[in-house]
Amino acid sequence: MIVKPVSADSPHITFPDLQALTNIVPVMLACYDVATGRCIYANAPYAALGGMTCVEVLGKTIEHIIGTDAAERVKPHFERSIALQAPISYTRPTNLPGDDPNWIEVQLVPCGKPIADRVLVMVFDITPHRLAELKSLEVATRLGKFMQASTEGMAFHVKGTITDVNPPLLNMLGYTMDEMVGHQTLEFVPESRHSQAKQAMASGAETTYESFAVHKSGRLLPVEYSVRDFQSDDRPQRLIIVRDLTERRAAEERIRFLALHDVLTGLPNRVQLDDHLNELVAEAHWRRDQFSVFFIDLDQLKRVNDSLGHSSGDVLLASVAERLLDFCEKNSLDGHAPWLARLGGDEFVVTLPHTSAARCYQFSLQLQATLQRPIDVHGRNILITASVGVASYPDDGDTPSQLLKNADMAMYAAKGSGRDTTRFFDQSLARAADYALVIEEELGQALRSTAFVLHYQPEVSADGKRVLSAEALIRWQHPTRGLLSPDEFIPVAEGLHLIVPIGQWVIDEALAQIPRWRQLGWHQAKVAVNLSSNQLRAPGFADTVLKSLQRLDLNGECLELELTERMLMSDDASVMATLMRLKQAGVSLAIDDFGTGLSSLSRLRNLPIEKLKIDKSFVLELPDSASSVAIVNSILELARGLSLAAIAEGVESKEQRQCLVSLGCQAMQGFLFTEPLAANEFETWLTALFVHNAATTRA
Ligand code: C2E
Ligand code: MG
Ligand code: MG
To answer: How far is CA 567 from CA 546, 563, 583, 635, in A?
Structure first.
């Protein structure tokens, strides 16, 4: 066989050349004679199927070369090709050398005219191609299952056109499959986010970013898109995983809210207040403006918590918050509303921007009036009041912490001056606070060095002739400040819990006077001691009192304990048990400063008390003030009704005494008779009284 040269000069290609060429192509080639069914040509790879050379294979049947089984499978294709007189091809697995699965593609081409008398066989090893196909099918199947099972939304797109979506994405966006497949991805992204989406697409990068998706209803959903490249059906596709961030956003929102708000009232909390104050300071500094900070502390929350329980306290706080918020909204100035936060407990803070002193004062009055209306707590009308302290930028401080501290200090001063009032910060308050700090340090030392002394003020009959008892009043002999009155250090001692040992010292010291007074002729000698609530609540208080009496061999009748209304109004069972024990031991109990507290009359009836001490503020205005006369009169009537003794404190003038006597009050205490006296002075006073009484009796 001679093949025509490409050009006249080039050498001829010979049959051996072609034979050599066909032996190295990656195709198995053979030719069969149709009439005899025998091989008339094969290249080396084909002959190798039968374990023969190209020459050995010539004249052999197909059964001989590829085996009977394989020949049986091939024959129908041969026959079909000849019958059709046209090439056909088919693929089938085969057992080519090696253990791995193999696939071949066989092409049968009938040759010869007009009727084909030979069939050309070409066998291609398509194993790598087939394996890749299977792999891609497997991946597609696995991905299909994954898409169905996934709870995340998924979509495929080719160059922006959606080719597939899974049910979770359809659910998330509210569309059907037809409404998404074939559409552009951008149709499901809000226009404002198109450039972001286009950028992600154009970059071709595998990326994750947060954006929005458009729900069928038009609602925007916050989502996270994760884009991945994916090869499927020979096409580069992009897989988008769509994660709905609505819940995550809501949780983040909640966390952010909780970090900046008070849970009970929903108002801004301390953290937000600090930020807000920083902003106000910066703005006021820049504008050379002023603003004020109102520190509000409710006067009755503790009482409500103690008597009605903490859930009632919570209801009260929520109502107060609502009322204050409403007040702030209605009291904006030039479009700037006052701003409200809750610091915790019963403390609220309001900031008032762009304020003048006059406006500040007016605002504080309105604020106080707002709170004074009764609040409904579980069906009970609770009257509340607030103590308010005000500090203004820049006069009272130019940093948030200084302003808060000074407003707080002013609020404490408001509490000290009788509650339900507003105090504006001034430097004297700061000095007082410094003083309290110094006192704190020195009090412990005073107790160790017995720098306290007791003065005694007698309680007498209206004519001043009979001494009923003597009230022990503590003083502090301070090394540099002189003799300090109890109001100057008892509140500090209470805060430090030093009041318990100081109070114990008072009881022991006061009782120690009884034997001396008896010696002077006062056989019924009795001393009255003031108590603090922490003392009364201290464990074992009754025991320590009874032990003190025992030590001096005294009975309970020698001692009277003065309590305040506030101390008696809580439902504390242990306090009640303490009082009952003391009373059983003969110790008498009196309510001091009666009329200034919050006594409930029904409760008063059940308390083991014997005496009411009418507060000196009512006595002071006798006899001119009709309301004071009315109050004193009703206290006396109440005492009579409850079979309690009554005594008027702070009697300074004869007119007051006269008025009290006319109202039926026979026991008194006050400067009219004597001021509180040091122990030795009191003994002198007592002796003088007895001498005087003896003289008048003789006369
Ligand atoms: P208190 O128990 O109501 O005592 C009466 C206060 O009124 C005393 O003030 C007394 O000096 C004063 N006073 C007496 N007569 C008159 C008067 O005619 N006119 C006026 N304007 N005042 C009069 P003091 O001694 O400064 O005591 C103040 C408060 O300190 C006492 O009020 C009492 O609550 C408390 N206190 C005194 N000693 C102790 C103590 O040992 N322990 C505790 N926990 N508190 C004490
Ligand atoms: Mg007293
Ligand atoms: Mg009093």
So the answer is: 21, 7, 16, 19
